[in-house]
């Protein structure tokens, strides 16, 4: 091993502490080991110039044991402990640990160099018994420190996970450490009585009566990708035959850490003015007695990587079903006309729905009004600047973006179009609504047809 004088060490340490060079630069420039330079810096910071000078020190058994106990208690590394106690060879600590594990405190006693001395006279029985008692006490103390160190590490992990560290959680930690440490030492480190420990162990072994319900709640939550809150999950459970109160579902979801990812929608009020093209015949009467009686439509846009996609859907107010929709990359009239053709194909000869929209330019076109007239569809328009006159469609757009668009990342417009098609199918066939007695729009329409 190359030996370095004190001036060389001070020069490198001062360069590092002054900030003129870092570990990597110094190691590369002077060809020394990274760990050796770190040890010089730590020794200088803790012990000053004396920490860099040559040193020949005699370490007795008590000092070695003190170092090992400190490492076990504080969880220090051998390198950190060597710098703290000004021990020049980090490998010495590992050697001491192996000697202690093999032979106890006696093995830490340094041996004299040279020829062996004449065997001393054997100690008296009283002296031997005192030494045995001291060794036993030291071993017991070291075992306790090891158990305490393991317990504190587990308890620290609990605090970092924002747990309260209650008696039940302490008992859980101790139960995990029992295979490696005596229970008495663990109870002493945790400050827990034996009866309290066994009480909580028994409570942990008791089966959770809500385990099956929790499993179903988590399955529903993951199936709907976090879109369901406790009300919809309650409706889904009741639909599956589980009679459970919504407050119980809310409490169990809180225990599981589950919460709807959909943000609440804000109310904004503005009356606006009636348009000149068509009156507001809907007048916010968003209920319909039968399918294809009242329709609403609107256009919304999406932005993906500097590109836009426009969506134009038609909703049937009878069950909130999206009966037709079309997308385009530009806000052209084909966006609306194609959607209308799809919607008209669902009409029977006797059905003449009312179609409500806002005052967008598409809905004021002569061609749009002509298409409605040809199919005996009555036109209705919101008042100017009043989105609440078309609240049903605005609500769908808010749900679509909250439950789908904002929760996903899209690389291209094509990927977004595929996702919209999948979500609208999910919205119509699977997503239950509390206003529809816990059924999806398609389920509600099919149920009505059977009556």
TrEMBL record:
Q: Where is this region: Disordered?
A: 109-132
**For the Integrase catalytic domain, which residue ranges apply?**
287-449
Which GO molecular function, any one, fits this protein according to its record? sequence-specific DNA binding
Would you say which domain of life the source belongs to? Bacteria
The GO annotation for biological process reads: DNA integration
Per its UniProt record, what InterPro entries does this chain match? Answer: Homeodomain-like_sf, HTH-like_dom, InsJ-like_HTH, Integrase_cat-core, RNaseH-like_sf, RNaseH_sf, Transpos_IS3, Transposase_IS3/IS150/IS904
Identify this protein by name: IS3 family transposase
Natural source organism: Alcaligenes aquatilis
């Amino acid at each position: 091993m190359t030996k370095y004088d004190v001036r060389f060490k001070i020069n490198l340490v001062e360069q590092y502490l002054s900030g003129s060079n870092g570990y990597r630069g110094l190691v590369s420039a002077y060809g020394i080991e990274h760990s050796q330079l770190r040890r010089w810096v730590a020794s200088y910071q803790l012990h000053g110039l004396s920490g860099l000078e040559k040193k020949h020190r005699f370490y007795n058994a008590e000092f070695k044991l003190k170092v090992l106990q400190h490492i076990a208690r504080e969880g220090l590394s051998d390198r950190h402990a060597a710098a703290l106690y000004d021990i020049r060879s980090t490998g010495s600590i590992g050697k001491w640990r192996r000697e202690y594990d093999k032979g106890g405190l006696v093995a830490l006693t340094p041996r004299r160099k040279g020829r062996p001395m004449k065997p001393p006279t054997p100690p008296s029985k009283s002296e031997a018994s005192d030494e045995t008692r001291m060794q036993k006490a030291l071993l017991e103390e070291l075992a306790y420190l090891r158990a305490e160190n393991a317990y504190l590490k587990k308890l620290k992990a609990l605090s970092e996970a924002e747990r309260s560290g209650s008696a039940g959680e302490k008992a859980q930690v101790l139960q995990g450490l029992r295979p490696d440490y005596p229970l008495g030492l663990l109870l002493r480190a945790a400050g827990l009585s034996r009866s309290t420990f066994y009480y909580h162990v028994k409570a942990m072994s008791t089966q959770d009566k809500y385990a099956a319900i929790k499993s179903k709640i988590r399955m529903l939550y993951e199936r709907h990708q976090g879109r369901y809150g406790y009300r919809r999950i309650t409706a889904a459970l009741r639909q599956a035959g589980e009679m459970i109160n919504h407050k119980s579902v809310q409490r169990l979801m809180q225990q599981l850490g589950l919460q709807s990812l959909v943000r609440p929608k804000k109310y904004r009020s503005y009356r606006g003015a009636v348009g000149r093209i068509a009156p507001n015949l809907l007048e916010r009467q968003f209920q319909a007695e039968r399918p294809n009686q009242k329709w609403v439509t609107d256009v919304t846009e999406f932005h993906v990587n500097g590109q836009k996609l426009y969506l134009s859907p038609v909703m049937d107010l009878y069950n909130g079903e999206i009966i037709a929709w079309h997308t385009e990359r530009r806000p052209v009239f084909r966006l609306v006309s194609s959607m209308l053709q799809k919607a008209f194909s669902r009409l029977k000869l006797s059905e003449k729905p009312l179609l409500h929209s806002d005052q967008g330019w598409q809905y004021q076109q002569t061609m749009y009004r002509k298409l409605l007239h040809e199919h005996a569809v009555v036109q209705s328009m919101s008042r100017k600047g009043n989105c609440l006159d078309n609240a049903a469609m605005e609500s769908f757009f808010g749900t679509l973006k909250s439950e789908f668009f904002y929760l996903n990342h899209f690389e291209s417009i094509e990927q977004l179009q595929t996702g919209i098609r999948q979500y609208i199918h999910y919205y119509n066939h699977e997503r239950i609504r509390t206003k529809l007695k816990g059924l999806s729009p398609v389920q509600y329409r099919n149920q009505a047809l059977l009556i």
